[in-house]
Design a protein that fits this description.
alpha/beta, 6-stranded mixed beta sheet, 4-stranded antiparallel beta sheet, 8 helices, 28% strand, binds adenosine-5'-diphosphate
């Protein structure tokens, strides 16, 4: 079964149609990029797939579980990093990740181990006691990714994961995404073609709320 299967997604804001007719699949081991300009509907699509925004139409299955019928069951398999996550500047990395682990219903006894694993997988082993507010943007983004994987979801959803970072930080986050995809399917959004070329196996280009096309990176390279 696909990790994500979305069919015919639409979202209206009042009478304004933000996205329509969006269908996609994410397979294990894969990084799928949603590429499009600002306002194309990327965040709207990812909010719906992550269970944070109700679609006006369409169906979403996460690991075979219907997200709209069984949101709690489906969300266990999902990790999500929004474009503008709330930043808990006054918490330490450890405090925040413990909090995130509890939100994901990890049993109290298993939290320490889950947090340590999430830190080691995101290069935060030595940052546990640091206040989030004093970290660099690149490290803050690692914390955002660590909270998205702390419950070992099948899928992680990353909305514009490298926006606002400097070139070195961008490279580090892209490398991290390429490592993580061996254990979690990844869907990310970006308005930058180079981001897709550096991290993705397949790309879906969207514009004005519609799919323009979906293709593999290999085919995309051959077209050019
Ligand atoms: P992207 O993430 O690709 O920049 P969005 O999904 O944020 O695009 O936005 C898609 C469209 O939906 C845009 O036209 C945007 O103005 C509109 N939109 C997004 N969020 C809202 C909202 N909360 N209320 C009204 N319109 C919205
Ligand atoms: P290759 O045969 O060279 O691995 P693929 O056809 O598997 O290429 O991958 C297509 C695109 O996906 C490549 O342009 C590459 O940037 C990207 N890619 C390849 N492997 C990975 C990976 N493990 N994680 C993320 N992206 C990858």
């Amino acid at each position: 079964t696909p990790l994500i299967e979305a069919r015919g997604l639409a979202r209206y804001y009042g009478s304004h149609c933000a996205v329509q007719g969006i269908s996609l699949e994410l397979r294990p081991g894969e990084v799928l990029g949603l590429l499009g300009p600002n306002g194309a509907g990327k965040s709207t699509t990812l909010s719906m797939i992550s269970g944070n925004l109700a679609p006006s139409a369409g169906h979403i299955r996460i690991n075979g579980i219907d997200l709209l019928d069984d949101p709690r069951g489906a969300k266990r398999h999902l990790g999500y990093l929004p474009e503008h996550p709330p930043l808990y500047r006054d918490l330490t990395v450890d405090e925040f990740l413990h909090y995130a682990a509890r939100l994901h219903s990890i049993p109290r006894k298993a939290v320490n181990e889950a947090v340590d694993l999430a830190k080691s997988r995101t290069g935060l082993e030595d940052a546990g006691r640091a206040l989030i507010g004093v970290l660099s943007k690149g490290f803050q983004q690692r914390v955002g990714i660590a909270q998205a994987i702390v419950h070992q979801p099948a899928v992680i959803i990353l909305d514009e994961p490298t926006v606002g970072l400097d070139p070195l930080q961008i490279r580090e986050i892209r490398d991290l995404i390429r490592e993580l995809c061996h254990e979690h399917g990844v869907i990310l959004s970006t308005h930058i073609l180079a981001e897709v070329q550096a991290t993705c196996h397949r790309v879906m280009i969207i514009n004005r709320g519609h799919t323009v096309f979906t293709d593999t990176l290999q085919h995309l390279a051959d077209r050019r």
